[in-house]
Write the structure tokens for this entry.
Amino acid sequence: MSKRARPTVPLVCAALAAALTLTACGGGEKKKEDAAPAGPPTTMAPMPKVQPAQVKALVGRWVGVNKDYFEFQRDGAGVWMKDKQQLWKGQAIPDGTDKYRFSWEGGDPQAASYWGVKVTDNGAKLVFAGTNQSYTKSKAK
């Protein structure tokens, strides 16, 4: 009676697959130096002192076509609202002629050109740089 030899190909394939799996995932713990480098920490500049005359053009409510609105006080404090939900609350910071950037988390982002507004059409319109949408100044009640 002759003994039939077992095929070794499936065993070799299984061993090869296991080896590839172990080496593909790194085969161990990650080291601190293997971690991807983090970007520099984001820091905000301190809030500048805003004078009422600097934000006079912003004071009031500005309504968009989507029924969201910005509302600014005499001191530059403002909110952005949509359906009774507050989207932003902070300070408008003068950033050139009829241009204002918005504070973020109590600081001045300084370089976020998309996070602010510009007053246009002789004070009748406000354009939010983040969406390029226009807002119309509502009449005082």
Observations:
- Residues 52-137 form a domain with the Lipocalin fold (CATH 2.40.128).
- The CA atoms of residues 46 and 107 lie 5 Å apart.
